[in-house]
């Protein structure tokens, strides 16, 4: 299938790293909200008409973008709103939308995030182990602090405090991000035992590795994969700075 001009495929390294920065925007076909493509989820259609999640936004052909939660996507699917929106986006009514599409989207976003963690692990950009994270955080070497969903409150507070100290955020109340994944999922993905907390280093990937291209830091790469998952699972409000909340029928999608 031909790739339309507004769906030009490019390396994920070349795109701006965070929602709200300058760069390509897309409009959600369901909500009408417009935002940076790093915060939206792309749906693609196979040659047979099957609608599938495209977590890395790299599949060829026309795409449709959404910035809704799984609950909202399920409601749109149940009410027939999704079919109409996708028919307009793909310019065809010959689409196969499977009943478990909302589940497939979450699985794809989760895999994409865990794969990103695995890549950063191999480049040495992840810090594991409570004490190692605390030591690195206190000297400003942790740019992004993540906690498993089943991490204890006391454990989170201890690391959050160290992170605030090293980031010059004392008194701000800022905290690390609680992931929609438990320690078992993180441990399996990273091949380590009992991964409860993760620190992502403030620097980029080591020189000479693929992740070093484009000037993005490890934290920016991880955060980009995480944002989509957090929005979709309802942990982040898509209107919270990531989108220009507007209905504009003339906005390209």
From TrEMBL:
<feature type="region of interest" description="Disordered">
    <location>
        <begin position="1"/>
        <end position="27"/>
    </location>
</feature>
<dbReference type="InterPro" id="IPR007393">
    <property type="entry name" value="YlxR_dom"/>
</dbReference>
<dbReference type="Pfam" id="PF04296">
    <property type="entry name" value="YlxR"/>
</dbReference>
<dbReference type="InterPro" id="IPR035931">
    <property type="entry name" value="YlxR-like_sf"/>
</dbReference>
<feature type="domain" description="YlxR">
    <location>
        <begin position="26"/>
        <end position="91"/>
    </location>
</feature>
<protein>
    <submittedName>
        <fullName>DUF448 domain-containing protein</fullName>
    </submittedName>
</protein>
<dbReference type="InterPro" id="IPR037465">
    <property type="entry name" value="YlxR"/>
</dbReference>
<dbReference type="InterPro" id="IPR029064">
    <property type="entry name" value="Ribosomal_eL30-like_sf"/>
</dbReference>
